[in-house]
Amino acid sequence: MPASLPTHPFRTAEDLDLVLDAIGDTRVVLLGEASHGTHEYYTWRTALSQRLIREKGFQFIAVEGDWPDCFEVNAAIKQDDVAYGSAAQLLQTFNRWPTWMWGNWEIAALVEWLHRHNKPLQAEARVGFYGLDVYSLWDSLQQVLRYVEKQGDGAVTAARQAFRCFEPYSTDPQEYARAVAFVSEDCQAEVIEVLRALRHQAHERQYANLPEREQAFGAEQNALVAVNAERYYKAMLRGGGASWNVRDHHMMETLTRLLNLHGPGSKAIIWAHNTHIGDARYTDMRREEMVNLGQLAREQAGREQVFSIGFGSYQGSVVAGKAWGAKLEKMEVPAATRNSWEGQLHSQLDGANALLLSSELKDHAHLRQSQGHRAIGVVYRSQFEQFGNYVPSVIPERYDAFLFLDRTRALHPLDIHPAQKGPPDLYPWGE
Fold it and tell me: Which PANTHER family match (predicted)?
């Protein structure tokens, strides 16, 4: 690292004062992670989220997770009483691989905190928990059908037709995509009609309060997931960046809808991988004409209304699989490569954690060039890390702030810690 960078130490939640001040009155705060299986990313995002909710009035957390599963958590944390047994039991709803992303003790602790926070509040003021992702085509269709049959309204026919259209593909959206790849007939018209019918119904009806609006919103969102998932799986089969763009446009559309649901001036906290929340225009994604949520949020809401925080670490351990669908494992994360962003911070900080603000980094000319920045997905093989786990990034432009953790450790999935009560403290410094 040619010149020493301005950094700020952080060890406790109080050390986040600086980033809270920098966030100011921003409406959307994006909290990243450099892997989907690192304990400290979850606990520090929880610490930040709690402060944003308590001190700045943020109304909901939206995560890189499926809408139906997250909506079940959302309903549970807004109840007066704990009707779901325990948070760990509630999180068993996340049963699609990779289950550990949201089925873990760190999220269980967040769920319990959200319920305690919500309980004394009026229904309209209770903090929500929602999913932004697009994978849940079949589950979302099932949720729509249950909703319209219970309501007994005009969308029943459209929902049943869509359900029957997908039924031959054994609930496997990839099998559906392969089956329709070379024919003119697919189920696109059917899912679009379901969405149209639900939107017409919502326009015709008046809802007295947010909880009522939210139930209708949830059904419409499931229909939107079905529409965009149908597009996503067909695009994925074709390869290239098109499916990624469908997915992140869906995330942005969902975020916009959630902000509108909660009313003028509402504020959102987003939890997603750095590859989603760090502006794609300042990475090599731009060459492939790929966009992401961080870029779209800045473009649509205005950069002054969006604050993105990247996360990264130098070495430690992580939970991941060696292939898609493989058994989850605790894996070692080797020291970051010498010239990477993380490797350079480790050298400068001599093993300490640090908070960096992009507003203080922009005078450092060498940071205007791309730096290799580590990214670990749900599939990981450390022996091949240097060949595909570093995303060239202009860090001060990609993020508004960066939290560097020199040494991190693996998440605590419910699958491999079933009898454990969870980490003894929500915060990393309490363990």
Answer: ESTERASE, PUTATIVE (AFU_ORTHOLOGUE AFUA_1G05850)-RELATED (PTHR31299)
157: containing domain: 134-266
* Rounded distance between C-alpha atoms, residue 431 and residue 429, angstroms: 6
Q: State whether 325 and 416 are in the same domain.
A: yes
Task: Identify the weakest region by mean pLDDT among 35-44, 54-63, 161-170, 344-353.
Answer: 161-170
Place of tokens 């960066």: 402
Query: Does 301 fall in a domain?
Result: yes
7 shares its domain with 154: no
Total domains present in the chain: 2
From 235, 266, 297, the end of a domain falls on 266
* Helices within 134-241 (DSSP H only): 137-151, 156-166, 173-180, 188-204, 210-238
pLDDT grade for 425, boundaries at 50, 70 and 90: low
Task: Name which of 424, 425, 416, 426 is nearest 110 in CA terms.
Answer: 426
| Angstrom distance (rounded) from CA 277 to CA 291 | 10
Query: Which pTM value belongs to this model?
Result: 0.94
Give the largest Cα separation in the chain, rounded.
Answer: 67
Residue 72 is assigned to a structural domain of this protein: no
CB 396 within 8 A of CB 310: no
Query: Cβ–Cβ contacts within 10 Å for residue 407, how many?
Result: 15
Mean pLDDT of the chain: 91
Whether residue 242 is found in the same domain as residue 292: no
Give the tens place of pLDDT for each residue, 331-353.
Answer: 999 999 989 999 999 999 999 99
Say if residue 277 is in the same domain as residue 260: no
The CATH number covering residue 42 comes to 3.40.1660.10
Instruction: Report the Cα 99 to chain-centroid distance in Å.
Output: 14
